[in-house]
Amino acid sequence: MISVNDFKTGLTVEVDGDIFTVLDFQHVKPGKGAAFVRSKLKNLRNGNTVEKTFRAGETIGRAQIDNRGVQYLYASGQEHVFMDNETYDQFSLTSEQLEWELNFLKENMNVNIISYQGEILGINLPNSVELKVVETEPGIKGNTATGATKNAKVETGLNVQVPLFINEGDVLLIDTREGKYISRA
Fold it and tell me: pTM for this structure?
């Protein structure tokens, strides 16, 4: 059990039978009435974000999340197969479970799997990945007033806004949290 007064960003807790990670929190001490903690929590099972208010000093369950290194092997229809790096056990996750992550996953890529008491909740991607540009319009000289961008499609199918000097075949560094261009690799 953990007190809501000890909340930290990134802490995983169990509230009403669901597993949440703390995205944001604020201790509030009104002039009249009892103090409370206002928090923004992300449900790790379905990805929804909720705002909850707790009384100061209230205790809730702490969820012990396991992170294991796995390798993404291949896709088979709607199933995506992973292999545990230590035990070499294979398991699969559905496209619905990996909706955002599929924009960045390449075969043989190493990621971390998040699980709680044997239940797989999802995967943790690195903060950035290198992806190759497969389709983009050519940059036209003189079109560079200030920060001009164009659309580029990378090897995973993700569309990214990139500067005009990027060409097909270039390898880019892409931020996995926001899906944005960082730089050329």
Answer: 0.73
